[in-house]
Amino acid sequence: MDFKLLEKTLSDHAQPHFRARQVWAWAARGAAGFEQMTDLPGALRATLAERVPFSSLALQVETRAGDGTVKALFRTVDGHPLEAVMMSYPARSAARVRRSVCLSSQSGCPLTCTFCATGAMHFARNLSASEIVDQALHFRRSCELDGPLPSNCVFMGMGEPLLNLDSVLAACERLPDLGISHRHTAISTVGWIPGIEALAQQEMPLRLALSVHAAEEALRSQLMPVNERHPLRDVIDACRAFYARKRRRVFVEYVMLAGVNDSYAQALELARLLSGPERSTAERRPGATRTRRAPGGPQDSASRGERNAAAIFKVNLIPYNPISAARRAGENGSLRPAYTGSTPAAIAAFRDALRSRGIPTTVRLTRGREITAACGQLAGKGVS
Fold it and tell me: Which of 50, 198, 324, 377 has the highest CB neighbour number within 10 Å of its CB?
């Protein structure tokens, strides 16, 4: 709900401050409306129902995939589209299911990565903390009927979260009340260095996920134009500084594109990038943190780099999820590149090359592809 409007309405009606906490506690537990908040006076419940919309978002379409993934298309009060996803995964016990919500931080995205459907959308605006939380609350309420509740959250939906960090952090403050701890919350970035540095100063033990997708600067700039502003080597330095400050491993996201970034040589280049060696002071971005290098020969430095990389980074290889021509169409009608996903054999070989260099690597389990809810497919259009 719109927390600012709620607080203003309560203040206008001379209500004590604790009423806002009561309302939030009910919402976080899955209440479907003010009428269920039985410890509020009846007249106040009626007033809130009249003056404060229970959600700051309007649900347009909700679709479900055979693997249990649920995608919701919302619109803001000023008409901007956004999508959020809830994914289900088998837990260790066959009788249980683990659920994770994927939240959006913006309507659209200004950073135009060429393999992502969101990047072809018109960028509307940042979402407020209320609009972010309401995505999670929607799934919290829906789970009241078929549990279990979501226990994990990733900011990997629409938008670049670090361009809207204040609202994202304000939303994260409330997620534990929904049963999603800070340690089970990950914020993904294309490599926005000021945001990485600001996130490192936060006390919440949030996780950082970095979209890399190519270890070579020129290729990454083709795939992700933001690389021209924040070169990858500087971004990796910022991630190392994040780890030094937080002692939280950084997840490296790498979408597998056939014939583009999936060769054995490119896997080795990624391993070298994550392992070092560290650059000299003259090479580093001004103000970046420098870690002390212990004495030793080249072989010792290489093995030490692999050990450091294993502590700091974990790579998630992402099978590419196809995007239709309609979703690749930009605002001017031009089509963005049509990529093909790497074969399972190519992904396995890439994974094995990284593991042989001491880099922890997994292959992401694809969820929601049939309803265009998988990584890179969100476009504010529902199913098409």
Answer: 377
Q: Find the catalytic residue in 109, 116, 143, 375.
A: 375
Determine which one of 83, 131, 253, 306 is catalytic: 83
pLDDT in tens, 149-208: 999 999 999 999 999 999 999 999 999 999 999 999 999 999 999 999 999 999 999 999
> Model confidence over 295-327: pLDDT tens digits?
444 445 456 656 688 899 999 999 999 888 777
User: How many whole angstroms separate alpha carbon 373 and alpha carbon 4?
Assistant: 31
HEC string for the chain: CCHHHHHHHHHHCCCCCHHHHHHHHHHHCCCCCHHHCCCCCHHHHHHHHHHCCCCCEEEEEEEECCCCCEEEEEEECCCCEEEEEEEEEECCCCCCEEEEEECCCEECCCCCCCCCHHHHCCCCEECCHHHHHHHHHHHHHHHHHHCCCCCEEEECCCCCHHHHHHHHHHHHHHHHHHCCCHHHEEEEECCCHHHHHHHHCCCCCCEEEEECCCCCHHHHHHHCHHHHCCCHHHHHHHHHHHHHHHCCCEEEEEEEECCCCCCHHHHHHHHHHHHCCCCCCCCCCCCCCCCCCCCCCHHHHHHHHHHHHHHHEEEEEEECCCCCHHHHECCCCCECCCCCECCHHHHHHHHHHHHHCCCCEEECCCCCHHHCCCCCCCCCCCCC
The four Cα atoms 291, 186, 356, 247 give a dihedral, to 10 degrees, of 30
Annotation marks residue 375 as catalytic: yes
With beta carbons less than 8 A apart as the criterion, state whether 76 and 88 touch.
Answer: no
Q: Delineate the domains of the chain, giving CATH numbers in brackets.
A: 55-280+300-371 (3.20.20.70)
Average pLDDT, the chain: 90
pLDDT tens, residue by residue, 99-109: 999 999 999 99
Residue 297 has which token pair? Answer: 């020969």
Q: State pTM to two decimals.
A: 0.90
